[in-house]
């Protein structure tokens, strides 16, 4: 019995030592892995240092933020709370919403009294504005076919409606209709901005104020050309603080065109920096002056009512836009504003000749469009083509030929059409009857 007990005790001690030995061995293996992990992490860190890429970091951060946001939403709003979705119409992060954010009928709909009209457009977004005669919500239905099927909404009641449609495809055409508390527009079309290699056309004109019938004729000529964009160099009405004139001298003539064609204005002296002007249009940036890219081109709209001399806020912004256009390797640089530096029509703006004109020459602006003078003028100076296109409807100016570089001048109602195809841009000055009275091509 004693020997048996001794044997059992020795066996138990042996078993215990074996288990402890195994545990020690496993622990050593873990330590080895830990060491390897440390080494791997160190190597990863070294790799990260070598491959440090802020863009990738941003992507990672954004991804993490999305995850965090999802968690926060889940925690604070609950799955059933779709307040955000109701407001934006978003039900999908990858494409436009198919959810009708205002699916109910209304017995007493307001009237749409202006628009809809197209404003700032990019490859994936477009701003659409309209006005109703009482506060109401803003719903845009759109789609690749007349069945529409997608929605962009803002449910805050307003009279001046402005909605940016998002998640669009570049270089694509859409049907759209706007709706406010049951009031509904007819179906129109818009197109997103083209890719860099796609040809496009735009029209520039200005000084259409005061003579609505003449303006209507010019707009008829523009409409017949079916441009992708229209730019106006200002003085769209006689008195910017008379609200009724915006319809009488501008929207009544341009309304149909603006339903299908994005329309940009650079403010003239007659708009007088009016609150009404800034409420009626929607341009990018601070809206006083702005720029946008379209196809292979950058368009820069200056405000010649404001200070643009060297060192001013606008001068510095203008130079930054020219520099970034160079960095982005955009093919064409077009500038437009109301006042010209030189004109055969008398006057011109001395301050421009010592501030923004040297900038345009330094950074290779291709063409600068202006107005204020009610005629057509064209010339090239130090690589910049100067075009005055102030024949949009106002009474015409006379001229005296004393500016040497201005080689073409015509006192005629007109607009200028520019067709951009890669490294070639063809300019045509066209009167309301469709007669081309000046044409030239710039090639890079
Ligand atoms: Fe003017």
Short recap of the structure:
The chain has 444 residues and is an alpha+beta fold.
How would you describe the overall organization of this protein?
The chain has helices at residues 2-50, 54-76, 83-88, 212-225, 243-258, 275-280, 313-327, 350-353, 356-363, and strands spanning 112-121, 126-143, 150-165, 173-180, 183-184, 188-191, 200-205, 229-232, 263-265, 290-294, 297-301, 332-336, 367-370, 376-381, 384-389, 406-410, 415-421, 424-430, 436-443. It folds into 3 domains: 57-84, no CATH class; 89-191, Immunoglobulins (Immunoglobulin-like), CATH 2.60.40.10; 200-443, Metallo-dependent phosphatases (Purple Acid Phosphatase, chain A, domain 2), CATH 3.60.21.10. The longest helix is centred in the N-terminal third of the chain and has 49 residues, at 2-50. The chain is globular, with a radius of gyration of 32 Å. The strands form 3 sheets. Strands 10-11-12-13-15-14-16 form a 7-stranded mixed sheet, with helices on one face. Strands 1, 2, 3, 4, 5 and 6 form a 6-stranded antiparallel sheet that branches. It has a 6-stranded mixed sheet with strand order 9-8-7-17-18-19, with helices on one face. The chain is α+β, with helices and mostly antiparallel strands and 444 residues long.
